[in-house]
């Protein structure tokens, strides 16, 4: 459906609800969902207009908004719904989210922690009071956090994160881990309404207080899943001390209304956090590795680090294979520590095209990739096939070819022009990749040739060069 159709439908609905025409209808930035949002303004009322073609999901959201509001949980008010149920108006809660605050380096740490304390307290109330009187038939797409739901999340990790990376892994051993984890995370208290996507972007900070959005996938299940979603959100990067403090606060809040079982919660929570991170990595894989959205790729290294820390903390032999897999996967997403380098970091790498393109750099999501297969291939000659682009005979062979010289000259000019622009704009990262069939000869030579040219032109003060020969490092 076209944007104009959405605007027309929302204009009609707004006029029906308010009796006036809107002054403006402006689209809001798209997120990871299929829903389309507009900010509708007039002198009478400012609100958010929503289009979603999934009518069943809309019905669930509208039902939950009313159900939660009746229990004094701060959520948007539904102001109007179209007859087709694909459009609805809801309260405009502004544009400032908790995510904006916790990722702002200039934010007051004390005030941020106060907000987090309030958020965790509200989460406990959402989980407990939201469960009371819930109509299970209204929950969508599934009503409960059950074995089917858990396995969907774990397979999300397998099929959308591991498989797109082309990593060789033992599926039977991974299935054993999945069976073990699923039994643990389903073994706790599930008498809660699980928010399902309780991350800082879904907490809106307004002058009237905190409000919670995007709860349409809520289901009956463990509230610890939501707490893990918040505390282990990759970009939030909370300290372990703060995580432990907020976990204790959550338990205390539960105990004001029911017997929480503190010891059980403390032993279960790390496993729930491991499970949640695996599900999140599946989402990062789908949105980042498959759809190539940089924002999701940027979160992968931190999520991998969080997973490794949790696996180390539980030290459970039943998770040994997951720990080994995590160590291998982490090597693909290592981030250079540029904390003490204030210039431009250039990553130059060579790879085998037949083994697929490497993941995008987690910081900036892109750069140049050059296909060296158009050049003469020394790997097809017996005297060179056991050598690499680092060996003198291969270097001499390629240096003597006019096609190679023209190719490298054109690449150097393009890259150096870009570096000059990046330096002028104070950009911090750029990557340049060279691929060939096996990742042994031409791509390695071209990468090294570029590095030599750049070091001669820029030195070490303004430009830091990191070289990575992916196939050679596997030897």
Descriptive report:
- The chain has 475 residues and is an alpha/beta fold.
- It has helices at 3-18, 55-69, 98-102, 109-131, 147-165, 171-185, 224-231, 240-255, 262-290, 294-298, 300-314, 320-330, 392-399, 402-424, 442-458; strands at residues 24-27, 36-41, 47-51, 78-81, 87-91, 193-194, 203-206, 209-212, 219-220, 344-352, 368-371, 429-436, 463-469.
- A 5-stranded antiparallel beta sheet has the order 1-2-3-5-4, sandwiched between helices.
- The protein starts with a helix and ends in a 6-residue tail after the last strand.
Brief characterization of the structure:
The protein is of the alpha/beta class and 475 residues long. It contains 15 helices and 13 strands. It is globular.
Give the overall form: globular
Tell me the CATH architecture of the largest domain: Alpha-Beta Complex
Spatial gap, N to C terminus: 52 Å
Strand sequence of the main sheet, in spatial order? 1-2-3-5-4
Rg over alpha carbons: 26 Å
**Roughly what percent helix?**
40-55%
CATH class of the largest domain: Alpha Beta
